[in-house]
Amino acid sequence: MDNNYRKDFPLLLTREEKGRRLVYLDSAATSQKPLSVIKAIEGYYRNYTANPHRGAYTLSEDATGLYEKAREKAAHFIGCNNPQEIVFTAGTTEAINMVALSYGRAAVKEGDEILITVAEHHSNLLPWQRLAKEKKAVLRYVYGDEQGQISLGEWEEKINSRTKIVALGHISNVLGGINPVEEISRMAHRHGAVVVLDGAQSVPHIKINVKELDVDFLAFSGHKMLAPAGIGVLYARKGLLDSMEPLMLGGGIVEEVGEQSVVFMDAPWKMEAGTPNVEGAAGLAAAIDYLNQVGWTNIHNIEKQLLEYALERLNGLNEVEVYGSKHPENRAGILAFNVKDVHPHDVASILNSYGVAIRAGHHCAQPLMKHLGVSSTCRASFYLYNTLEDVDIFIDALSKVREVLGYGT
After folding, report:
1. How far apart are CA 301 and CA 381, in angstroms?
2. Can 364 be counted among the known catalytic residues?
3. 259, 292, 325: which is the final residue of a domain?
4. Of 105, 161, 209, 282, whose CB is crowded by the most CB atoms within 10 A?
């Protein structure tokens, strides 16, 4: 695999762990940042530092232009032709909470049902759990098989006339399974339900078109797609967004305020109270440019080859159990696994001594862990800057874990 993208990521070129080159395999948690994104953030602070939408002077107008161009770029990036359907947030977590509180509180009534999967990240579970309790609604789950694959038949069985919201992750942050969103959206809409898609793990890795997926809401985070932390996006269909009350109240979202009344601005600006994260938007725009420059075909081919090679090598280790689909075509570049007789935290610590960074824990998906019959797992996740050499270093280190702990090979 000819992968020249590692050179664009300064930390990967300079950072060492225990005197060894860093092999970063935790991109499902957060991604490394290319130099172009770092420069874009620096460029904002050097050239555009001002509060957008507020000042009648050139610097503020320049900051406004940068911010709103980033909104347009984010819209185009996900196949949305109306930038006014894009709300900037702090990330996926805030975006989903915004939908649950600003839309869900008005739309869900006692006895209604909210449907999610058992594999959801806590960010796409806890807001619905709270909403169901507040509204005396029913929170239902789809579970899937032992490999985490959810059949369309189970979705068909669970979605009904009482379903008001279907909330699901596009790609599982643990098992890497990919949900058939278009088909699920059709089922949900037949029953009058809206679809909330957690795109935190999909938007950075596959080409997204919200119109083709036919979702009503899409949430994703910049920091998982090469952009800085603290910037995210909520896409919402215009009619739904217009109907939503602001989650946060404060400056920058009003047309007029009286002692006892307020008139809010139109969406999306009414949803963005306070001083916006302009530098985050600048970094997000630069990350979008970078991903588009690399190209989705290249990103797909890199991650496909990494996943297939890593799965093949992991399956060759007798003391390692891999969770999720055994077929690479059914999953993204996320691998959850455990080493026999070794706690995941010990695995991660030992791998770190070889310069390999993975994640260990419940991955903010405790119901899924219980469903799998484990308390936690190890997780390796890939991105476009990883190489086959990274996989080899990872597998070679993993093969030594039991020996280091005195279990033998």
Report:
1. 15
2. yes
3. 292
4. 282
β-bridge partners, 378: 337, 360
**Do the beta carbons of residue 198 and residue 169 sit within 8 Å?**
yes
User: How many structural domains are present in the chain?
Assistant: 2
Task: Give the containing element (helix H, strand E) for 378.
Answer: strand 377-381
Q: What is the pLDDT of residues 92-143, one digit of tens each?
A: 999 999 999 999 999 999 999 999 999 999 999 999 999 999 999 999 999 9
Task: Name the token pair of 273.
Answer: 């109270």
- C-alpha span between 259 and 275 (Å, rounded): 23
Q: What is the mean pLDDT of the chain?
A: 95
Token output for 384: 């476009």
- Distance (Å, whole) CA 271 – CA 274: 10
Tell me how far apart the 2 most distant CA atoms of the chain are, in Å: 74
Domain match, 332 and 188 both: no
Q: Look at residue 16 and tell me if it is in a domain.
A: no
Tell me the helices (H) and strands (E) count for the chain, helix number first: 16, 17
Residues 379 and 279 both lie in one domain: no
151 and 204 together in one domain: yes
Containing structural domain, residue 280: 38-292
Query: Which of these is catalytic: 364, 374, 388, 405?
Result: 364
Phi, psi of 192 (to 5 degrees): 80, 15
179 and 312 housed in the same domain: no
Give dist(CA 245, CA 222) in Å, integer.
24
| DSSP code at position 375 | S
User: Are 285 and 311 in a shared domain?
Assistant: no
Give pLDDT tens digits for 350-391: 999 999 999 999 999 999 999 999 999 999 999 999 999 999
The reply to whether 32 falls in a domain is no
CB 265 within 8 A of CB 81: no
Q: Give the end of a domain, one of 292, 309, 338.
A: 292
Contact at 8 Å (CB) between 102 and 94? Answer: no
User: Same domain for 81 and 206?
Assistant: yes
